[in-house]
Amino acid sequence: MMNPHNVIAAKNSGKSISTTDLYSFISGYVEDRIDDTTMSGLLKAIFDHGMTHDEIYTMVDIMIHSGKQMNFEHLSDYVCDKHSIGGVGDKTSLVIAPLLASAGLYLPMIAGRSLGHTGGTLDKLETIPGFRADIPLDKFQKLVEKNHSGILAQTSEICPADGKIYALRDVTGTIASVPLIVGSIMSKKIAEGIQGLVLDIKVGSGAFMTTLEKATELAEMLKEVGEHFGVKTDLVYSNMDQPLGRFSGMWCEVKEAIDCLHGKGPEDTMALCMKLASKLMIQSGKANEEVESNSILNELIENGSAYERFEVITAAQGGNISKVDHSPSYTLDITAEKSGIIQSMNTTEIGWGLVEMGCGRKQKNDILDPSAGVECHFKIGDEVKKEDVLFTCFCNDEQKLKAGVEKIAHSVIIGSESVKLSLFYN
Predict the structure, then answer these.
(1) Which domains are seen in the chain, by residue range?
(2) Which of 368, 416, 357, 360 is nearest to 391 (CA)?
(3) How many CB atoms are located within 10 Å of the residue 118 CB?
């Protein structure tokens, strides 16, 4: 019989855990035979001492098989997904899913809610009246087969071991463990039954990984796990030293995604969406290289197919875009204290400002404000004059708005040097 305390002691002494012991430990926790305190001991040991590749492969396999998996082997076209490692203003999933679906690919997306200072795709979509992401797995699979895409919340049917462990990681300070991040992300993606994946690896002041070195460590392990389980995995490293796009928040991000699907989105958002989508177009054989992919995708935007697919996908999950009415009750501008060139932004602080306004949760049961958000009028490298409006903040609660503005107000550094920020890391 596996002794949990011996397993924790072994990991704390730098030894690896056998496949049998790791399986027994995790399954014991999921089935309530091992309590939170004991599991916390293992999570902290993993946080401190890491895991070998074989341990990570075993953990992912256990998480996948702790619940149901989707199966799309009977479909003739490519089944794939995109995942982003957090961010502020990141609405790319809302653009990429309908865009690639209109190109004939299948995207069964399992998306998340807000985490820390970063927004959640599901929270944004639920600003559309009637939209539901808690769909039974068999029904969701049929929706994807019919509409080429759908966006699902992680339910107890998919990777329940991950769901239970994730909740414990949040209260034990072990969120930032690379092996545990990899296990959580990849178990859900592989359980989707996909053939291919593109990962948007965020780097910078608004990312969970602030340096390229840390981001690369995580990204390469994600890729290795994906390919170990037969999922073709591409990486894109993108800059999160400033919010993505013009708007960050709740409904305002959905609206900006709709602008992108009409070909009228901000330059940085459009560029990132195209880069990520092209990786999957090339994987699938729909295009041979990025220029060809961009030509095909731009045509789908111009002829209205991409936006039409967005309406189909959201309507299939109960959403009614015509009933959206999220005009904020309160608005405040943040102005430049002096003239000069924007040198940098504290994007994490902007994210926490958005949380204060109702775009994210401080407590598990916090109710979000669909009207809340911020408009970013200038970006790093732009020249501004004293009293120019840098940000417009808005929501439905005056006190929350003031708290958010307090955090965002000092997030911008203005100086005299020319600055050029690249969206991608080579």
Answers:
(1) 4-50 (1.20.970.10), 80-181+191-322 (3.40.1030.10), 330-415 (3.90.1170.30)
(2) 357
(3) 27
Question: Distance (Å, rounded) from C-alpha 125 to C-alpha 293?
Answer: 27
Instruction: Report the C-alpha gap between 202 and 301 in whole angstroms.
Output: 26
CA-wise closest residue to 143 among 319, 296, 301: 319
CA distance 414 to 268: 21
pLDDT tens for the chain, residues 1 to 426: 799 999 999 999 999 999 999 999 999 999 999 999 999 999 999 999 999 999 999 999 999 999 999 999 999 999 999 999 889 999 999 999 999 999 999 999 999 888 788 889 999 999 999 999 999 999 999 999 999 999 999 888 999 999 899 888 877 888 878 999 999 999 999 999 999 999 999 999 999 889 999 999 999 999 999 999 999 999 999 999 999 999 999 999 999 999 999 999 999 999 999 999 999 999 999 999 999 999 999 999 999 999 999 999 999 999 999 999 999 999 999 999 999 999 999 999 999 999 999 999 887 788 999 999 999 999 999 999 999 999 999 999 999 999 999 999 999 999 999 999 999 997
Residue with tokens 């609405």: 91
Q: Return the active site residues.
A: 83, 162, 169, 184, 188
pTM of the model: 0.94
Q: Using CA atoms, how far apart are residues 363 and 360, in angstroms rounded to an integer?
A: 9
